[in-house]
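Notebook, bench 3.
Goal today: get a predicted structure for Gluconolaconase from Bradyrhizobium nanningense so we can plan the truncation constructs. The sequence was checked against the plasmid map this morning, with no discrepancies at the termini. Length recorded as 292 residues. Pasting the sequence as submitted so the record is complete.
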Amino acid sequence: MEQVPTSVLSDDPCHLGEGPTYDMTTDTAWWFDIREGRLFEAQLGSGSIRVHALGRMASALGRIDAERQLIVAEDGLYIRKLADGAMTLFLPLEADNPATRSNDCRVHQSGTFWIGTMGKKAEPKAGAIYALHRGKISTLFPGVSIPNSICFSPDGATGYFTDTPRAVLYAVPLNPATGLPRGEPEVLLRHTGIGGLDGSVCDADGQIWNACWGASRIDVYSPQGERLRSLSVPARQASCPAFVGPDLSRLLVTSAWQDMDAAARAADPQAGCTFLLEASARGRAEPDVKLA
């Protein structure tokens, strides 16, 4: 296990921290506490952090432009204005199914948004992975229990995802111009040992940085599925990474205290905190989402 310099970006513990992303134009990191319906906004240069109450479970966002974000929530996609936080429904998604919510998501280089849903109690096969492409939502992979690790190779020609209970990371060939599949998913690697595959992000070299839920670490895999590095995280339930900073060399990692009783939280005092790892990464900027 590799120990890199690590600091606490936020000690406000997230019930279920998820969906971190970074806006290079404003040096701002964003992430969610899904269970509590909170959106965190951190100005990295100043260290200032604001917490926004969303009034619903939400798990991810994509930057539309300098004034708007697209928020993925439990009942649909919302356009959020940065100026005042006002949210307007853009498209419903599983709004007629109160048993599900959104989970892992990421924007492809083309502007297409891959969106995962799951049961609020992780019911088997209750969720799916969708694509928002040119203003319309289509189903990519149905019957998913816990969608995670959605990310894309630097050339946009490969997408990755997992259904966490299956302990398999899949690679699927994509049309780089659309971010949509042009072939069937294939097994890239099978996870064994402690923990499970959670959120992932690809760096500029195509390496896959995965948060290993339950194992207090970030694993780095080659595009061929070989584990190259394992970085220690000071919370057992690391949930999702994002590259941050002017040179995208640092790693923001969310975590969670979900399903931990008092004894477990006492043994894991930084559970739910959000961390910055000096990872010496070669990260990539997140693309903007395209609505049409």
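The chain is about 0% helix and 55% strand. The CA atoms of residues 106 and 187 lie 20 Å apart.
Flagging this for group meeting.
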